Amino acid sequence: MVNVYIETKDAPELTPMLVFWPNYRFAFKEKAVFSPEIMASYTTPFFTIVPGLEAADFIAVPYHYFDVLDYAPKYLAYVYALGKTTQKKVLLFDYTDYVEREIHVPSHAILFRVSAYRHHKKENEIIMPYFVEDIGRNYSFEQKPKGEKPTVGYCGQSRFGGTTRKWKAGVKWLLSLFLLYLRLDVKPHVHMRGIFWRRRALQVLSKSKSIVSRIIERDFYSLYRAIPFDAKTIRREYVENLRENVLALSVRGDANASQRFYEALSAGRIPLFLDTDCVLPLEEIIDYSRIILRVPAQEVDAISRRVTVWHALVSEGDVLQAGREAREVYERYLRLEKFFSIVFDREKSPYKKLLFR
Predict the structure, then answer these.
(1) pTM of the predicted structure, to 2 decimals
(2) Which residues contact 254 (CB under 8 A, 6 or more apart)?
């Protein structure tokens, strides 16, 4: 296990991020409905916290990067200086939706984050998976056969919950797009919020007579306790929607990543992945083309055609094999304890030059 030193002098009173929950066992925010159940399977720490720098492989900042940047910049600057003085690399973590904010970290710091835009990603950023429920294990999923027609499922937020909210979101996006053009961003349209992409993809899929679309649209995010319905019932509908379909539509949220993507893999389902210039975890060693159907965001209007062409080309055996491999990839690479064990393997890590040299 990797040894990390955490500076306690003038440390901010912030809640640590989930990667350090096995170390600190802090209380979850009340609105995070399923976090206790998800984290219950992660009882062994990913890092050993050591009391002194001599025994440390790295210096770690156990809080969300943007929280420290905003509320404790002096502490962050001190840790950077400490790392430079002791020639220890600094580990940072970003588990937020703040993918639109610019990252400025020194060369001896490595930022683990759940999402980035490929055209913005820096060399010292490593994409990590989300913590998600292991649906395949918890709900005893069986493999789903190909079927006569392709089946696509979606269950989640794709409505604004009112005309005013929709109008405000549209205006905000137009202003953001204008600023992206001013900054000469090379792929401005992929920055659009996930709800817009989901709505467009669902509109196209629902019109196709060649596809069986099982769609449950909501105007709320079901992982928050503030929802006006029974959380367990809502979750059961979500799980059954995954169970019933071969393909699971997986589109970014406010971050440029999809939690549903990982849940689908855990369930042995094939993500129908709308790629908004995303970077996937460990893509240097995982052949995602074997277990997902990727559709570039600029081709969203052709998503139904991409599904029907795929369905015509694959055999029953191909679909079953993809489902088995999806589950295997989740278990071997994308559960967080497996992810970190690979990343910090001094011999086999695809990031060994970044981390250890």
Answers:
(1) 0.94
(2) 97, 99, 193, 194
